[in-house]
Design brief:
- Helix content is about 40%, strand content about 5%.
- It has about 280 residues and is α+β, with helices and mostly antiparallel strands.
- Among the domains are: about 90 residues, NADH-quinone oxidoreductase subunit E (Arc Repressor Mutant, subunit A, Orthogonal Bundle); about 100 residues, 3-Layer(aba) Sandwich (Glutaredoxin).
- It has a 4-stranded mixed sheet, covered by helices on one side.
- Strand 1, helix 5 and strand 2 form a beta-alpha-beta unit.
- Helix 3 packs across helix 4 and helix 5 crosses helix 6.
Amino acid sequence: MTVFLSLGQRPEEPGPPITGPAAYPPEVAARLADDAARIVARYPQARSALLPLLHLVQSEDGCLTPAGIAFCAGRLGLTDAEVTAVATFYSMYRRTPTGDYLVGVCTNTLCAIMGGDEILDALQDQLGVHAGQTTGDGRITLEHIECNAACDYAPVVMVNWEFFDNQTPASARDLVDALRGGTPVTPTRGAPLCTFRETSRTLAGLADPRAVTNPGGTGEATLAGLRVARANGMAAPDADSTKESASEPDPSITEAADSTRDEPAPAPESAAPPPVNGSQP
């Protein structure tokens, strides 16, 4: 059986990996340099500041551009290629212009079976765009996202990486209508919602002047496993007993390991495994 693998950019990413202006205007470069100096000063080695600096330049352009790549490289003594290699590895750095609100629908297994796929379909119809595209008014960029560790509140929609839990197609449609219309919306927990560029500045490590109005905390769904454990008399092992057992390995395991320590590794089997479903190897 022949399998073809398509390598390269995702289909929704048109053109070269990073496009746009090659350099910032002097006044923009000077402003970014002041912010970058504050960020870099926090790290013993300047190059450790690369990830926050990428967020900083993303806050300027709404995505990464050659100007942002060159700025980061110049500040950290790296090459453009080294910065690009890091920037294109992480999905949190956008390669195409992003709207005011990056709306992500989790379509990993649990969210999908709880309705995530239906939510994504509903939003694509509502907004008239496919995942990876931005609405014509520049307000919303829609995408499907990987797990964001909120499975206990599935299905989850994230807006600029703030949580909107237990969504339905109807509630998700109401959410994007409010975003497009300028109506304030409140995340389930975390900081008040702001634009994508403002979020990027916060992720760069610059001070967020807003107060956290939705601290959230541990909810009932998160505590379900703990309630079941207590109802069944289950408890974690005592820390002292765990340390004691770890310091005294099973003698039979130690003897077995010692008996084979100097033996050569087994040779590969000469017989090929049988074909699967009648296919030829």
